[in-house]
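Lecture notes, continued. The same structure-token format from the folding unit now serves as the input rather than the output. Read the line below as a description of shape only.
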């Protein structure tokens, strides 16, 4: 049996007092380890009528196209995370305009926050990208998109582009939570 670094007690799976689901609990000190969803942040980044896409150099879905996005880091705001991901994946400086969507992906234990953003610099592949490109709507490689949420975000961004204000979207009704 494993133990937590500060307790030395065995770790067991049980429903803690006052909870309603099984958790990892230290049998010696009662410490509860909560395993919570991962937060993904990213952006639909535009320059004029073109959107920035990155061709993945890593799994999952290596070789497929995606938005610049990734996991939020500890002690990082969601906006800062989206800017960091754009820089890591496309060496791109961006300006966040608005929150576009919040997608719930329960099967993967993810919550995705996708922003609208403007491209402020040139873009080139970062370590996690094979290539990057700016695509018009008709040029988007629709059959080679890495994840359903990329398609959702592109369609939702197109619907609200140019609006001064709008409410952020959620999962499309026909795909609510399915991934």
């Amino acid at each position: 049996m494993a133990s937590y670094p500060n307790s030395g007690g065995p770790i067991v799976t049980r429903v803690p007092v006052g909870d309603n689901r099984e958790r990892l609990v230290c049998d010696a000190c009662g410490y509860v380890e909560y395993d919570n969803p991962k937060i993904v942040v990213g952006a639909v980044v535009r320059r004029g009528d073109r959107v920035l896409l990155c061709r993945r150099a890593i799994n999952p879905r290596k070789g497929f196209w995606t938005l610049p996005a990734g996991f939020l880091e500890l002690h990082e705001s969601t906006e800062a995370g989206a800017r960091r991901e754009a820089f890591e994946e496309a060496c791109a400086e961006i300006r966040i305009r608005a929150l576009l969507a919040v997608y719930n992906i329960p099967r993967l234990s993810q919550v995705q926050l996708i922003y609208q953003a403007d491209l402020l610099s040139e873009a080139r592949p970062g370590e996690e990208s094979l290539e990057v490109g700016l695509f018009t709507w008709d040029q988007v490689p629709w059959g080679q998109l890495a994840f359903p949420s990329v398609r959702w975000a592109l369609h939702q961004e197109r619907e609200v582009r140019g609006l001064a204000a709008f409410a952020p979207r959620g999962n499309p009704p026909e795909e609510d939570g399915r991934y």
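Point for the exam: The longest strand covers residues 94-105.
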